[in-house]
# Entry
Amino acid sequence: MIRKLLDFFFAKKSQVVESEKVAKEKQQKQGKLTARERIEKIVDPGSFHEWDMFVQQASTDLGLDKKFLPRDGVITGTASIMGHPICIYAQDFSVAGGSLGLAHARKITKIMDHAIKLGVPIIGINDSGGARIQEGVNSLAGYGEIFYRNTKASGVIPQISIILGPCAGGAVYSPALTDFVFVVDKISKMFITGPEVIKTVLGEEITMEELGGARVQAEISGNAHFFAESEEECFEQVKKLVTFIPWNNRKKADTFPPKPPKVDYKISSIIPEDPRQPYDVRDVIKALVDDSDFFEIMQHFAPNVVIGFARMNGETIGIVANQPLVLAGVLDVDSSDKAARFIRFCDAFNIPLLTLVDIPGYLPGVDQEHSGVIRHGAKILYAYSEATVPKITVIMRKAYGGGYIAMCSRHLGADFVFAWPMAEIAVMGPEGAANIIYKNEIANSPNPEETRRQKVQEYIEKFANPFVAASNGYIDAVIEPDETRKYVLHSLFIARNKEEQTLPKKHGIPPF
Amino acid sequence: MEDKNLTNFSLEDSNYITTITKKYQKRKRYQPQDLTKLRAFIPGIIQKIYVVRGQEVRRGQPILVLEAMKMKNDVFSPVDAKVKEIKVKVGEAVAKDQILVEFEL
# Structure
């Protein structure tokens, strides 16, 4: 009897597995891997356990009854990545264009529910033409139920989206609701309305790649967090990310054996003496973190602020740093969005924050004001003030005006604030300040340029140092740049068991 | 990605040596609204023209009907003015930002 049943299931299974040959042919033509291959390349070898292999389309309307849609176009299951448990799904473009029908959606929501209940990350691989038109409103219902779970799971389990094909219309909103979006050059395409519609309605001609290709999402729109040249490179990024983040919001990220930074990075030789000269802040980060291994997020979007994960003493930390190499390290609409969302991720998942400050202020400009730099800039204030994880701030050089406050100052609840001796904490740069304070003296002087130069110099001598802030207790200690790692490690150790109570509320209302 | 060429960047009278992003370079420069020109806010077809050349119009007065996305949109005068020239005809397809009517203030 058992033999007979086993044979029955074996026959059913081979019918499904057989369809993978067709899938391979179809996907290969487009330079893409199959859903099955993708899962196998991301997860630990042999760790994938498939669910719901025999599920087929829920509808029999409009000719769907005559079609064999194996797995209803999505593979779901559980697996491990570098030993971390995860739930995963991958849409199969070779089955009805990966279109989302009711059964397809139910498979996804089932594995999402499982991930939420068991407290493990969910990874979704998106490769789909969109809603399955034949299934009408049931297809839309499916999307809605996925978005609902994305939102409920937000801040509870890490959610990762990998875009490996088209992802258009309503489909883009599931990735947008998740924490990290990965794209691959020439393969990923995301947009709400495609080039055809844009041409018909607006008369604007644009290719799919220019409209919503991987580069656009990684550089211009900021919808994607990681950009890769190939699917394989993308999978390596996913694996690395998984090692830095905890399984859920009740846990801390795994610890690794502590390692010192590499000797080639020495802070005192990275920072130029002239405060107007730039340096790559990522070199400073590498001088501070274990093995000089910095995992940068959103590398290509708003590069005037740098965010990413690293480890110190083997434990994950989130780093936010101004980048003097790009736009002098100002905050603007894009960089505020980028930093604020990252801060909130770290706070939700118990990852301490290290903030490295070298900021001349917010970016002036009509375009910035009209795009709502007030509202966007406020997100950073909100995110830092709200965060209850350990917050450590190092003021490296400039900390001017609103930028000083925003970059996790003492006033926003930083637990430790250090400053290097050359730190300048002031309302604005010396030139601007002297021009305002000594406006009359400069104007009435027989030699205005000389007076201006003198006044700027006076201002620099008096205020271009961390003494005023230190004497007010806004910074805890003035430290030598090369001792920064020591101080940060100590702070992390002291703050290990930090617990901060927040006022009871349903949820805050951050500026969106 | 950013332009690798270092350049001067001035901020509140201070000069910084840094790089400029492509997105910053391509930012939309502000242009004050030119009230003497009525432009198409969306591509479409002119369905009706309510005014004639030389006519005095009031701010908020319907000037023409521009059909786009299956919607007949009344287009209003942004200003009290005299119609100097009507640049389109009924039935004409117009592009976005195309000048439809010129006013004399």
Notes: DSSP finds one helix and ten strands in chain B. The beta strands of chain B are 7-11, 14-18, 37-39, 44-49, 56-57, 62-68, 71-76, 81-86, 93-94, 99-104. Residues 37-104 of chain B form a domain with the OB fold (Dihydrolipoamide Acetyltransferase, E2P) fold (CATH 2.40.50.100).
